[in-house]
Amino acid sequence: MQARRKSSNVLLDTALQEFYGAADEMGLDEKLVSILSHSERRIHVSIPVEMDDGSVNVFDGYRVQHSTALGPSKGGIRFDSEVDMDECEALAMLMTWKCSLAGIPYGGGKGGVCCDPLNLSKKEKEKISRTYGARIEPIVGNWSDVPAPDMNTSGQEMVWIMDTISKMRGKLEPSLLTGKPIKYWGSQGRNEATGRGVATCGLEFMKVLDKNPDDVTAAVQGFGNVGSYTAKCLNEAGVKVVAISDITGSYYSENGINIRRAFEAIHSHPKKLLEGFEKVGNCEKIDNVLFADAEFLFPCARDGVLNRDTAGSVKAKYIVEGANGPITPDGDKILDDKGVLIIPDFLANSGGVIGSYFEWAQNLQGEFWPEEEYNNKLMNIMKGNFRLVWDYAEAKHLKMRRAATMAAIQRVADVLEMRGIFL
Q: Residue 113: which of 84, 92, 91 has the closest Cα?
């Protein structure tokens, strides 16, 4: 038996140990355990960029394809100062399970550039995006690897990358990436898809708990693309969102945050932040949104925020993971001992990749759907997937995370058995 992997990276080790635990409980064949605990491809590229001041910086870029058993690898590209190979590999593995659980024909991938996006000009971001795109061009494509936006990237970066690769190949390839602007081969509804999916999972969670959304309070960590639309969709369903946050701090109102005003605040801020929101949002700043007095918590920012040092201070009774890996194994145990029920990330935040699948399918066909149709398809799939995992967990007496992991692994394992291990 091949020695099992361990990593000094918290996120990668968390992903590996959750996989091994589920695989052992399933009795998964050891050869499949060995295959699925390793990524198919990991590349590290250098990205030289002439900065606005004339100096040259060389940034590190990464792309990982964990599995293509079910189809082309799928996963975002993030710009962040903490991006490294281990983080990308962990997130690529999570994407494999997310796509499998969602029932869409994708494997898992992830990539990014190690940089500080808040200190880059638009022109510098364009140069990084285009050079990164040129470096990973050999491994991406409609049927091999389909990237998308992630942390600190948007449709604009996807357009730059798509344009660069299309020019290199001498033909337009709009289905090469997803998350593009609506005006340029994007899909109506895609921008809200991840947050809408997280909110939909949260609302389905409330339903099985026999809770009326009008009587529920929630706290949402992060007010980027995922957190902001999670808060918006929850609020529209009647949930009182009492706390929100971003890198500028945490904002709280016992009477509920005015989400419309919060959107206005970030759109008027030069860096799309909530800075100063307490002055215009009729709310107060608190130490940490994770510890807000709310029944439901939606961590939609970074990985590892609920850990051995923070999990014990959580007041929420229910958590829906909007970010990737926001709870560490130590944090998970503490929360479990407290009786907190958790909906795992690769179930809750799969709306983004389902929405990307819709965009990819539309691009391949040259056909576009109205936003209402897009949203209805998305919410129906999210509701069905939630119910599938909930019922499986109830029948097997499992936690939701373990039930979701086992269901996702089984589908990939079945296809690997059919295909064999050659190449």
A: 84
Strand, helix or coil at 200?
Answer: helix
pLDDT in tens, 300-320: 998 899 999 999 999 999 999
Element (H, E) at 241: strand 240-246
What's the full length of the chain, in residues? 423
Report whether 179 contacts 186 (CB < 8 A): yes
Q: Which of 174, 358, 405 is CA-nearest to residue 413?
A: 405
The pLDDT of residue 324: 85
Let me know: does 335 contact 306? Beta carbons within 8 Å: yes
Q: How far apart are CA 19 and CA 13, in angstroms?
A: 10
From CA 159, how far away is CA 231, in angstroms rounded?
27
Cα separation, 95 vs 141, whole angstroms:
17
The CA–CA distances, whole Å, from 110 to 83, 173, 380 equal 11, 20, 26
Please give the Cα distance from 109 to 1 (Å, whole number).
Answer: 27
Sign of the dihedral through C-alpha 347, 353, 359, 360: negative
CA-wise closest residue to 125 among 135, 115, 134: 115
Strand ranges (DSSP E) for 267-381? 284-286, 296-299, 318-320, 341-343
**Helix (H) or strand (E) run with residue 244 in it:** strand 240-246
List CB contacts of 250: < 8 A, sequence separation 6 or more. 221, 243, 244, 285, 286, 287, 288, 289, 292
Three-state SS for 71-92 is CCEEEEEEEECCCCHHHHHHHH
Per-position DSSP letters for 255-271, written without gaps between them: T---HHHHHHHHHHSTT
Low pLDDT (below 50) residues in the chain: none
- The edge-to-edge listing of strands for the beta sheet with 296-299 is 284-286, 249-252, 240-246, 217-221, 296-299, 318-320, 341-343
Strand-pairing partners, residue 41, are 65
Q: For residue 175, give the 3-state DSSP assignment.
A: helix
pLDDT at position 344 is: 94
Contact 222, 243 (CB under 8 A): no
- Catalytic residue numbers? 110
- Rounded distance, CA 186 to CA 128, Å? 22
